[in-house]
């Protein structure tokens, strides 16, 4: 079965490293494993897998993540 992918480099996903508090909620709620924890901070590891669902934004307590669902 072929892996489901979206268009490359069109997502509006952005992560502000300075605002990230390392709670790891984004890694738990993202349905496509876009985020991974490294050195107690979240990092985007698969930008092009983001489907802009907004789950990460809605669960980030520090406002470190931004995405405009449906734009990309």
UniProtKB/TrEMBL annotation:
Pfam families (alphabetical) = Fer4_9
Q: Which Gene3D superfamilies match?
A: 3.30.70.20
- One Gene Ontology MF term: metal ion binding
Locate the 4Fe-4S ferredoxin-type domain: which residues? 11-40, 41-70
Q: Which UniProt keywords apply?
A: 4Fe-4S, Iron, Iron-sulfur, Metal-binding
| Source organism, top-level taxon | Bacteria
Q: What is this protein called?
A: 4Fe-4S dicluster domain-containing protein
């Amino acid at each position: 079965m072929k892996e489901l992918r979206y268009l490359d480099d069109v997502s509006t996903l952005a992560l502000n490293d300075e605002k990230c508090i390392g709670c790891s909620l984004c890694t738990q709620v993202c349905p496509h494993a876009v985020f991974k924890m490294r050195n107690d901070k979240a990092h985007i590891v698969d930008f092009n897998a983001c489907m802009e669902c907004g789950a990460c934004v809605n669960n980030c307590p520090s406002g470190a993540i931004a995405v405009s669902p449906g734009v990309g």
